[in-house]
UniProtKB/TrEMBL annotation:
Protein name in the entry: GerMN domain-containing protein
Keywords: Plasmid
Annotated GerMN domain residues: 91-180, 241-330
SMART domains, sorted: Germane
Domain of life where this protein originates: Bacteria
Pfam family, one: Germane
Annotated Polar residues bias: 36-49
Region (Disordered): 32-56, 330-350
Length: 350
């Protein structure tokens, strides 16, 4: 399992389906490089703008859509996307927005909280795609039960950037091999492979299992957001795509306060087909859910795309039912193209 950092292609279907609800956005994620003074089009050519157009472009280019991994009222670490000023130190800026009572305070959606203790100073040094984060002594002022949340929040916030694949932590210049309050061990390099919101409720022995991250719905009617959950599945499951679909159909734990749009009798009719980054899934008609017409739930498709594009090499998802691609979304638009992962998740709260 790994994050997918591919640039989202301009697919009309996916932008209508995934961006329209405000939960997912299609803005391009920036690398950790100083912003350039020249404006480029998608094909790399430079353009000159004047008047109103230049003003609009300047406003857009002065901010960077950034995912901050915050903690919701149920204790889940959840990405929330916010526009931050462009800076030469976007990684450091992102972490500073995870500090309690810091600059993120006025941006927090209801029920969400930052995870790093107040007054913590942070430095970030990036080399060979490894971000070394050095916290000040105030970092130790957290509750023991928040230890894993802090590790996950810091790791997933930093690894959204193309220039960072893994994270190492320091406290006052000294390398951390375990967290300072409750002693949670820290691997040499923290990555997304370590998981997020770990759910081992149905696993008696994790020894012969592997991690699969899927997305469920959190929040409530009118204010849903997508929550990544890392489940453990048997090592005997050869196909990680099938494993992810099975976990989506299985649904979240009954005690989780999360929900899913997948009905329990949804099934894949054949092995997924992967070609050039696109996975094609052939479902039975139960994937339509409660709709009378051949309509795919927006939330079902969104959680499917988010879950599968967490896996290495998967860039887009095409859905068929009984081998046919005659499907539409809730807006009535035909799903004639595979759906790509957006660069920003949970944009509606800001």
């Amino acid at each position: 399992m790994s994050k997918n950092k591919k640039i989202v292609s301009a697919v009309i279907v996916s932008s209508v389906l995934l961006s329209g609800c405000g939960l997912l956005g299609g803005e391009k994620k920036e690398k950790i490089d100083p912003p350039q003074s020249v404006t480029y089009t998608d094909d790399g050519t430079s353009v000159e703008t004047t008047g109103k157009e230049a003003g609009e472009n300047e406003a857009v280019e002065s901010s960077l859509m950034t995912e901050l991994y915050l903690v919701d009222k149920n204790g889940y670490v959840v990405p929330q996307t916010v526009a931050l000023p462009k800076t030469n130190s976007v990684a450091k800026q992102a972490l500073e927005h995870l500090v309690q009572n810091g600059p993120v305070t006025e941006m927090l959606p209801n029920g969400f909280a930052a995870v790093i203790p107040s007054d913590t100073s942070i430095s970030v040094d990036i080399k060979d795609k490894v971000a070394v984060v050095d916290f000040s002594k105030e970092f130790k002022n957290y509750k023991p039960e928040d230890e894993m949340k802090i590790l996950q929040s810091v790791t997933w916030t930093l690894t959204q950037f193309d220039s960072i694949d893994s994270v190492r932590l320091k406290l006052n210049g000294h390398e951390l091999t375990e967290m300072p309050v409750n002693g949670t061990p820290i691997s040499d390099n923290l990555t997304r492979a370590n998981g997020i919101n770990l759910d081992t409720s149905d696993v008696a022995d994790v020894t012969n299992t592997k991690a699969v991250t899927v997305y469920y719905l959190g929040g409530e009617e009118g204010n849903y957001y997508y929550v990544p959950i890392t489940r453990r599945v048997s090592n005997s499951t050869d196909n990680n795509i099938v494993a992810a679909v099975n976990e989506l159909v299985k649904g979240p734990s009954y005690t989780s306060n999360l929900v899913s749009d997948f009905l329990p009798d949804v099934k894949l009719l054949e092995e997924p087909k992967v070609e050039d980054g696109k996975v094609t899934l052939n479902f039975n008609e139960s994937v339509y859910g409660s709709f009378e017409e051949k309509i795919i739930s927006q939330h079902l498709l969104s959680t499917l795309v988010l879950s599968l594009t967490e896996q290495t090499g998967i860039e887009s998802v095409a859905v068929t039912v009984n081998g046919e691609a005659d499907l539409v979304n809730e807006e009535g638009d035909k799903l004639t193209e595979p759906v790509t992962r957006p660069e920003n998740v949970n944009t509606g709260s800001f």
